[in-house]
From TrEMBL:
Belongs to the metallophosphoesterase superfamily. YfcE family. The lineage of its organism: Bacteria, Thermotogati, Thermotogota, Thermotogae, Kosmotogales. This is Phosphoesterase. It comes from Mesotoga prima MesG1.Ag.4.2. One of its GO terms (molecular function) is phosphatase activity. Residues 1-200 form the Calcineurin-like phosphoesterase domain. Its cofactor is a divalent metal cation. CDD domains: MPP_superfamily (cd00838). Keywords: Metal-binding. Pfam families: Metallophos_2.
Length: 256
């Protein structure tokens, strides 16, 4: 059984379309989406519609929650200063440019999904098993913390999103994957990322697929709709960057 997991599309329709096209060539039987359809990118409405049309089982990410409920914050761990300004601007823009029906869909998403395939139990959650929307399980999360969040988990395989960093770790007799990010990778590789897990008679193999897409077109759309240019820079670099603490919206000190 070949299963796709993807997440963190963040309003980047070009990246989503490229991933969906790549999936067609991979002999896939099931697809799951681990949330954050919206936020940051220029086409939140179109991304929600595409996922709905395809009827892909989807769980809620912190951005789906923030935009669905029109919250003032996504709960992200931003640095104070310009990073917070960009985050707030993008969140407010996404709230304004997402329909009531799309918001209703985002609010309807479950926090977790569980299923069993060929004797292997899966748990899908955007953040962590104990903090579904906000906790980051990163490659450098301590073993102690990882063990703590897995304490009550009955599944054999946990798949997360949220960090935008593809990852696989082993703890408490369980495999913990992060499926990376379709629309806003942060591991230094700007190509869209998704995860394939192949389960055959309780044995598991996996592959992180990296898919080229038209980054330039997405960056142009970011500018066209009036979103902050820094959002495009993250897509070009495939990672975040440190910004100076400038108060002016037009002055940015990049330290890449
Ligand atoms: Fe995200």
């Amino acid at each position: 059984m070949r299963i796709v997991f993807f997440s963190d599309i963040h309003g980047n329709l070009e990246a989503l379309e490229a991933v969906l096209k790549d999936i067609e060539s991979q002999n896939i039987e099931r697809i799951y989406c681990l949330g954050d359809l919206v936020g940051y990118g220029p086409q939140p409405q179109e991304v929600v519609q595409r996922i709905r049309d395809l009827k892909i089982p989807t769980i809620m990410g912190n951005y789906d929650d923030a935009i669905g409920y029109e919250k003032k914050s996504c709960g992200c761990a931003y640095n104070p200063g310009r990073e917070t300004e960009v985050g707030d601007e993008s969140l407010n823009w996404s709230i304004t440019n997402t329909s009531a029906a799309a918001k209703e869909f985002l609010r309807s998403l479950p926090h977790t999904l569980e299923f069993e395939e060929e004797g292997v139990k899966f748990l899908l959650v955007h953040g962590s098993p104990v903090d579904h929307l906000l906790e980051y399980i990163r490659p450098d999360t301590s073993s102690e913390r990882l063990q703590k969040v897995l304490e009550r988990v009955k599944a054999d395989v946990v798949v997360n999103g949220h960090t935008h960093l593809p990852m696989v770790r082993w703890a408490m007799g369980k495999l913990v994957f992060n499926d990376g990010s379709v629309g806003r990778p942060k591991d230094g590789n700007p190509k869209a990322c998704y995860l394939i897990i192949d389960v055959v008679q309780q044995s598991i193999s996996y592959e992180f697929r990296r898919v080229e897409y038209d980054v330039k077109s997405t960056v142009e759309k970011i500018t066209e709709v009036g979103l902050p240019a820094e959002l495009g820079l993250v897509l070009v670099l495939g990672k975040g960057y440190e910004m100076g603490q400038s108060k002016s919206k037009n002055t940015i000190d990049f330290k890449i």
